[in-house]
Amino acid sequence: MSTIHFEIVTPEKVVLKEEVLQLTVPTKMGEITILPHHIPLVASLIPGVIEVKKTNNELETVALSGGFIEVLPTKVVILADTAERAADIDEARAEEARQRAEKLMTEKREEVDFSAVQAKIAKELARVKAVRRHRNRHIIKTD
């Protein structure tokens, strides 16, 4: 069974580093799935959800705020602005943060940096999506 050495690195830490079977990532051109021996690729990543299929066939879900991916035939590295495992995200806090950011967008204040607020909304939306996918997958398994 072929695997891919996969790493997600942020400025603060290594979020994930292990051998995996496949991963799906959100690029500017759309979602792509990477399997072992994928053609080499470098791409920009957008805020969204990374899905990783581990060697034990479990799925790991990671929220991503953006970054870059480098794909080599047996190694994939993501350099991320921020990345969090779905299991580590508090869904209620992420949803509250998203709602606060959306509220800022509607306010007519000169000091509001709308591009920064839009980036915050995208990041928090990715966190909410990741934790919901993670939760729903575990609900289905236990029934």
From TrEMBL:
Major localization listed first in the record, in broad terms: membrane
Transmembrane segments: none
Residue span, ATP synthase epsilon subunit C-terminal domain: 88-131
Entry GO CC: plasma membrane; proton-transporting ATP synthase complex
Location of the protein in the cell: Cell membrane
Quaternary data: F-type ATPases have 2 components, CF(1) - the catalytic core - and CF(0) - the membrane proton channel. CF(1) has five subunits: alpha(3), beta(3), gamma(1), delta(1), epsilon(1). CF(0) has three main subunits: a, b and c.
Family the UniProt entry places it in: Belongs to the ATPase epsilon chain family.
Protein's name according to its UniProt entry: ATP synthase epsilon chain
